[in-house]
Amino acid sequence: MPSLPSGLLGDLDPTSDRAVFRQIADQLREAIDRGRFKEGEKLPSEAELVDHYGVSRMTVRNSFSVLQGEGLVHAEHGKGVFVRPRPPVRRLASDRFARRHREQGKSAFTVEAEAAGSHPQVDGLEVKEEKASQDVSARLGSVRRVLARRRRYLLDGRPVEFATSYLPLDIARGTQIAEPNPGPGGIYARLEELGHRLDHFEEEIRARMPSPDEVRTLRLASGVPVIHLIRTAYDTEGRAVEVCDTVMAADAYVLSYQLPAT
Amino acid sequence: MPSLPSGLLGDLDPTSDRAVFRQIADQLREAIDRGRFKEGEKLPSEAELVDHYGVSRMTVRNSFSVLQGEGLVHAEHGKGVFVRPRPPVRRLASDRFARRHREQGKSAFTVEAEAAGSHPQVDGLEVKEEKASQDVSARLGSVRRVLARRRRYLLDGRPVEFATSYLPLDIARGTQIAEPNPGPGGIYARLEELGHRLDHFEEEIRARMPSPDEVRTLRLASGVPVIHLIRTAYDTEGRAVEVCDTVMAADAYVLSYQLPAT
DNA sequence: CAGGCATACTCGTATAGACGAGTGGGCAAG
DNA sequence: CTTGCCCACTCGTCTATACGAGTATGCCTG
């Protein structure tokens, strides 16, 4: 059992009223912040820290769990505890739905990812009619049933977001929108062909911790929140023609918006 | 020691390979989701759950810590563990910087909060010149030093966000922008008076877990992420005239944006 | 009646020990 | 040399215990 390089981590302050496991977490956090442990690097094992600080194993584990909650580290069974690497982020610009981006045959996600040199995948596509939730119904203007299009997006094999689009049945039923592949330009192109010229979108953004379901679907590490985005598309008549509910791994995204100063 | 009302929580499945503390967390989570425990309500105490499930206290605590990480519950020393109430959220609309909102003497935050029936406060105001961080410098176009305006915002006594505005010294030095009170309409009104007519804003949004510092400043419960918003204001010459770095308690905000479909 | 204290309950911190399970390297057998 | 096993090391789960500290309640004292 190799002992810890001296100087890497300090000692405990027994006179402090800060709990021991917090002091340990503080020292590890600082070492990480200072770059003493780099991204992806292994932290000292529980046993080594037990030795170094002269505390019990549960105390060391407790400090690890603090850092895990902060999203700083993640544990791998049988291997060790590692500094969580920051994945490359996907930037969502506010003009990503502009008509000029809607020409190609591929989806916006695919085009953009390939331009960034990543390997995009779409997954678990599911299209079906269902009862509208209260929230969706309210946003679409009191519809009872909707067409729901679900799918999951992955970048280089990593799930990064999953989304469900809801459309009123009177618009979508029987059209290509109800097909698994909605055709070039996606459902927005189809909506416009159907006479619903798009006027604007409204996006609502929240951030919160994921549900266990979301942790599974996005394979989230602990300490990673999700961004919950609800987009409503309005046509030029002022009618809401689509609601898209998206849950994104927060560590994989930066959203970017342009606001007029008028 | 009053025993638990039967039927409220189920039994453990010893044949399951799901860890005991996860099973307990699952049952509590489901009970909360089903409304068996309402917002703000106290969950069974650790001792009661120890009795009910016949496990050790650390196991029960472990399941509580799972729920805490999800932001579902919070513990109060000496009182119990409670279902975390959802605080009222502040909606930030994308037109919140429109000129028409800039007429009054009060700040946008104050006006909006009072309209919503809340009691707004601004706190810890600090104005000083300092060295620009690399990021701020890049956004403002390679300035070395900036005027920084820091402040914290509270709603009904609860801290909800803190923000720092950075302005190039050649614009702000010696003007009312460098005063604690920038006057009616805020610094944007002053910027326009100084000839920097605002053209548009760019906002970048991230979500992540808070640093210990941010936990202190915003008095965040565990399992509450922060929204990190960086706004850059551009004048009609295309120059970046302000960068505002804001950290918000994610459970207190919904951001809302309007995007043109063009 | 008012104030203060004792007490029982709550969660917070920490110890010591046990066993399980995933990982990877080294060694031995083929 | 390759295969396969064993073992050492890692984190995961769980038990049992102890003491500390914050909170609320009720009783007892003044």
How would you describe what is shown here?
2 copies of one chain form a homodimer. The first copy, chain A, has 262 residues and is an alpha+beta fold. Chain A has 2 domains: 20-83, Orthogonal Bundle (Arc Repressor Mutant, subunit A), CATH 1.10.10; 90-255, Chorismate lyase. Chain A is 26% helix and 32% strand. Chain A contains 8 helices and 10 strands. In chain A, the strands form 3 sheets. In chain A, strands 4-5-6-9-8-7 form a 6-stranded antiparallel β-sheet. A two-stranded antiparallel ribbon of chain A has the order 1-2. In chain A, helix 1 crosses helix 3 (57-69) and helix 2 (46-53) crosses helix 3. Chain A is elongated and about 70 Å long. The first copy, chain A, starts with 19 loop residues before the first helix and ends with a strand. The relative contact order of chain A is 0.12. The model of chain A has no long low-confidence stretch (mean pLDDT 92). The structure holds a DNA duplex (30 and 30 nucleotides).
